[in-house]
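Annotators were shown the component list below and the corresponding predicted structure, then asked to write short factual statements about the assembly.
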Amino acid sequence: MGHGVLLSADVDFMIHGVTKYSFFGHEVWITTTQVCLLIVMLILLIFAVFANRALRKATEVPTGFQNVVELIVELLDGMVKGSMGKAAHKFNNYIGTIFIFILVSNISGLLGLRPPTADYGVTFPLGILTFILIHFNQFKYQKPKDIWKDMCSPLPPWLPIWLPINIISEIAVPISLSLRLFANVLSGTVMMALIYGLLGWVATIWPAALHVYFDLFSGAIQTYVFCMLTMTYISNAIGDAEVA
Amino acid sequence: MDFNENFILGCSAIGAGLAVIAGIGPGVGQGIAAGHAAAAVGRNPGARSEVMSTMLLGQAVAETTGLYGLLIAMLLLFVKPLLP
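Structure shown to annotators:
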């Protein structure tokens, strides 16, 4: 056990329990993930309050903070519009919200937090939400006959041999989505923890460059990928149907 | 047959190292995707942003298999599921 213990004494990237309480007889832990999530939420709430205040006395020609808010909203709307087309106006809000949330969570490693998205308990619900949205919209915009035909896809609809395989691939969607986000952020967190834990005083100043890669670049790319995949799946589920 | 803890931990470490070899595949795949994207931008510089987003999407999907290997390595090293 010797080296394992030595390593884990210095290197710390695990989720820690802060307090525990009893919930109907179950022992429930408040962990660092929840604390970091609360901090991220606070940041977003403060930003939202200031954005609201800036837009309440909005001017025709935007100035100062109003510029920033309009830029963000325009970028997000453009992204959704670009990949969802005519269904964009229905999903602007959801995609924009999860984009901002995942982005701030991913780059919260810069603030010294453990990124909340490096906990599978945070990314899996996001994947489940995507799954629910996909199938809700599929049943809303497509006829049951077409869905059945789609599920038996390479073979004709009266021969559902491929049905189980298609169902498995549908179930794999939220799992792979959430595991992708989780593993990417976790690998960045582990890498930074190893560098800070094992190198000691050698790790001064230059790890900033690594932070730029692991936290900013990788986090932003993964946020973009998660949102893009969510939008692609949803617009596939909608198909060619008219969106009111 | 019973093995002691150190033997199991050592074998877990070897297994973790082998699991991370899964990174070769996505590396090659992402390189191919990036190369073709570069060629596409060279042929049609106007479609740069669309090519970029398609490339990133494809690379992220290809990356998943490598990340599964990484996850297995993490589980073997830190969760230690093989210890009795």
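Statements collected:
1. Strands of chain A lie at 17-23, 26-31.
2. Chain A touches chain B through 21 residues (CB under 8 Å).
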